[in-house]
Design goal:
This protein has 177 residues and is an alpha/beta fold. It has a single domain, classed as Restriction endonuclease-like alpha-beta roll domain (Restriction endonuclease-like alpha-beta roll fold), CATH 3.10.640. Helices cover 25% and strands 41% of the residues. It is built from 4 helices and 10 strands. Strands 2-1-8-9-10-7-6-5-4-3 form a 10-stranded mixed beta sheet, with helices on both faces. Helix 1 packs across helix 4. This is Cellulose synthase. It holds the Pfam family YaeQ. It comes from Cellvibrio polysaccharolyticus.
Length: 177
Amino acid sequence: MAEKATIYKANITLSDTDRHYYDDLNLTLALHPSETFERMVVRLLAFCFNATARPVFNKGLSSPEEPELWCKSDDGRILNWIEVGQPSVDRLKKASSQSVAVEVFAYGRGMDIWWQQQRDAISAMPKVTMHYFAAEELQALVALVEKNMQWAVTISESLVYVSSGDATVSISLLEMP
């Protein structure tokens, strides 16, 4: 029998000063058995960076035809296809053909090598915007993961400050070189 996803709850007080957006978010995330905490945290950060557009978490790893998150218009068009990790060029081409914009939040081991190999092809796609998180900063945030998270998230000038209890972590959202 296959392992089931583990459910995490994130209650986030979001202050996004870059977009003048303030909200209390009550999110439920499913951590797939093959998914890392790092990936789950990047999904959560991607949600926070796109909260003004009301993103929706999709089935993630269990549904390869959909992005991690997307923002849709009232008529069902995909306005923003949001990928997490190191997607293939073919996947980004598909995303570009189905949406108005594509946003990638990259992270993880081998990211430098992946970007070096994919940079020219991805840079040729005008709809694709690439971001990444530094591994050390991301690991500090992973340390704050709990089954029921109470986070205060502040976004200011592409810096994210996450507070949980007595701990505060800062993470930079960086643009791919």
